[in-house]
Amino acid sequence: MSLKQVTSGSEVDESLAALLTNASAVRAIASAVEGTIGSKGLDTMLVDRFGEVVITNDGITILTKMEVNHPAARMVINTAKAQEEEIGDGTTTATIMAGALLGEGVNQAVKGVPVTRIIEGVRVGIRRAIEGVKEKARAVAGVDDEILRQVALVAGRDHADIADLVVKAARMVGQAKLLEPGFKLSETISSREGAENEVFAGVIINKERQNNDMPAEINNPIIMVVDDALEPEEIEEEALSTEAGFARYMELQAEFKENVKKIIDLGVNLVLVDRGVDESAEEALTDAGVMILARVANSELRKAAEHTGARMIKRTALKKEAVELEKYLGSAERAYQNEKLEHVRILGGKGKPMATILVGAATEEVVGERERIAQDAAASVQAAIKGGVVPGGGSIELAVAREVEKVRSTMRGMAVYGVDCVIEALKKPLSQIVANAGFNPLEKVGDVMAAQMEKGCDALAIDCDSGEVADMYQLGVVDPALVKTHALKAAGEIAEAILRIDTIIKKKDEGETPGKEGHPAAQQPELDF
Q1: pTM score > 0.85 for this model?
Q2: Under CATH, which architecture does the 12-138+390-499 domain have?
Q3: What's the CA angle centered on 75, arms 69 and 77, to 5 degrees?
Q4: Do 306 and 182 contact (CB within 8 A), yes or no?
Q5: pLDDT per residue as tens digits for the range 426-458
Q6: Which residues on adjacent β-strands are paired with residue 44?
């Protein structure tokens, strides 16, 4: 029974009004992305008021760029953002399952099942589903495991060139780096119009040298990373009007000049600076054959420091003795400015291994989408290394639905109806994938359920080309287990949060007084999209 069927042709108890309204909003959000899932999923065109167009198949891009006013819909989008930040993929699956969970929850509530019992059952069902995915996951045998290319290919929407780039980059940085909590392979991706696809052991700094008199290429550079401005320490203007203040100003200028000389004497020939560079420093360093990159993004500074073995330094620390400053320096095999792409590359750093994936295309719109595809592929490869893989195509969700059904049989009371919601939601990914491929979802879900039980194989789903039941492992359709578990967790959190809302009340504007004429305290909020 659909949400539309529940809300039409029958009078709904007023206590369900908030649930119905919120569930409709979530269902609308799910509808916006469900057509993109699976190998036959289509693209969405997003158009802003200026006529700027984004064409994408990426769930999180659609969710974050679409215009949404409904508070429940914004809750879904915020949860999707958290999923993207944590794992980098799976937002479409999470959103679709959240919509299905809520739709079925509304059906049960309309039948008279208490919402608290539905929530209880949803918690039990989601917990067992997550356990089931973990139990059925296959470990990846390191960065050289061939299955990683299949993971990248599926997440990368069958872009073989991007899958190859991502896997090569993963092998460059190594398994130890991929397992670090703070490292994200997806953040090593850059995209440029007119660029050739490539992966290299190094980092890109999206800045050009400070002036054309500086060297455009340096072999075996000695690198200093200044997490500050390369300028004299500042002094308040009021102080300059006093004799002591002016003397202090002159002292700081002389001290800074000496600090710049120390940089040159140390043999530094590449300086990366977070903010601006004083004119006198630029002149002295240019004369000494030093390349300066100013106003570098902090994230790029950190990557460069890590890759070259440099320690980021503040301008006040430049007062240290030369022997101390040497400990802050990094090195690399080569640094050069790419004139065509207007950036500088630092290659072969002596610090930690670092790979950069450069994705190119002919137009800005295509480049943007290819970058998003590469980011999804990179996030999935890293997730697979961390948590193993499971069969894709909606097969694993259907397999764990059977595990959830076993839990249902052991329960008593009305919480079983909440478990039913989870079982139905677990069928939704496969159902939507085959629908997007042009097949009857009801028929195909039944075929797969029967085949999985008959053959005892959890990897069975539908080949979207032939419409026949097939083994997803044999077809190379695999997903990271972490993407699935996080999607289930996110869907459960969204559903529970929405189900718990009993009343919608509009907040008063700050500064308004209750009872004042026109005060809207008792009005409902606007619930349109």
Answers
A1: no
A2: Orthogonal Bundle (1.10)
A3: 80
A4: no
A5: 999 999 999 999 999 999 999 999 999 999 999
A6: 56
Between CA 75 and CA 77 the distance in angstroms is 5
pLDDT, tens digit (0-9, with 9 covering 90-100), for 59-100: 788 888 888 888 888 888 888 888 777 777 778 888 899 899
Please identify, in words, the CATH class of the domain defined by 147-194+362-387: alpha beta
- Only one residue has tokens 């916006």, namely 32
Name residue 470's amino acid: A
- Span(s) in the chain for CATH 1.10.560.10: 12-138+390-499
Of 37-41, 218-222, 349-353, 360-364, minimum mean pLDDT range: 360-364
Q: Are 336 and 269 in contact (CB under 8 A)?
A: no
Residue percentage of the chain with pLDDT more than 90: 59
Q: Within the chain, which residue ranges are assigned CATH 3.30.260?
A: 147-194+362-387
Strands 330-331 and 389-391: unpaired
Q: Which three-class secondary structure state does DSSP give residue 494? A: helix
Q: Rounded distance, CA 4 to CA 27, Å?
A: 10
How do the residues of the chain divide into helix, strand and coil, expressed in percent and rounded to 5? 55, 15, 35
Determine the length of the chain: 529
CA–CA gap between residue 376 and residue 84 (Å, rounded): 9
